[in-house]
Design a protein that fits this description.
The chain has four helices and six strands. By secondary structure, the chain is of the alpha/beta class. The protein has a single domain, classed as P-loop containing nucleotide triphosphate hydrolases (Rossmann fold). The protein has a six-stranded mixed beta sheet with strand order 2-3-1-4-5-6, sandwiched between helices. The C terminus is likely disordered.
């Protein structure tokens, strides 16, 4: 079987760790220096449930509540990783606005999304509870994970779950794993 190409956009408020997650997934390393991203595209071959994928990951510039949703992110993308920081209530509020704008621009009620609460290594600075994140994801019918790009915690799972959601959306359901909300 030929690998399936899947385009994924990473979105979220600035400095929530979108680039750190992207680089950790693609290159397996943690980059600590914060340099606001203009926009980067990474490519990685990966395999989920014996299907090979070529993932094109677009690490977007951080959005805020006033950003116009960039229309190019609604075209040719199969799924979205929406990232907030567990240490920033503001980033959690902004992710809700990004999601609403995403649905508006796409004109859809559902898009494959994994909601990610990043920076679990800073748990002592947590302001967004695990329950809040989980509840929000459930209301979106999205998968939910908390990650630490720094400690490479659950980073690969984000993309694995998103690829499975995309397959389900495309009418190719994979074996259900216990952590997917259907």
């Amino acid at each position: 079987m030929a690998p399936k190409e899947r385009n994924i956009a990473m979105m979220g408020y600035r400095s929530v760790g979108k680039s750190s997650l992207s680089i950790q997934f693609v290159e397996g390393q943690f980059v600590d220096s914060y340099d606001p991203t203009i926009e980067n595209t990474f490519t990685k071959a990966t395999r989920v449930n014996s299907q090979d994928y070529v993932v094109k990951l677009v690490d977007t510039a951080g959005q805020d509540e006033y950003s116009i949703f960039p229309v190019q992110y609604s075209m040719d993308f199969h799924g979205y990783v929406l990232v907030y920081s567990i240490t920033s209530q503001k980033s959690f509020e902004v992710i809700k606005i990004i999601y609403e704008k995403l649905l508006d621009v796409m004109g859809k009620k559902y898009v494959p999304v994994v909601l990610v609460g990043n920076k679990t290594d800073l748990h002592q600075e947590r302001t967004v509870s695990h329950e809040e994140g989980k509840k929000l994801a459930e209301s979106w019918r999205a998968a939910f994970l908390e990650t630490s790009a720094k400690q490479n915690e659950s980073v690969g799972d984000v993309f694995q779950q998103l690829l499975m959601l995309i397959e389900n959306e495309n009418g190719n359901p994979q074996e259900k794993s216990s952590c997917i909300i259907s």
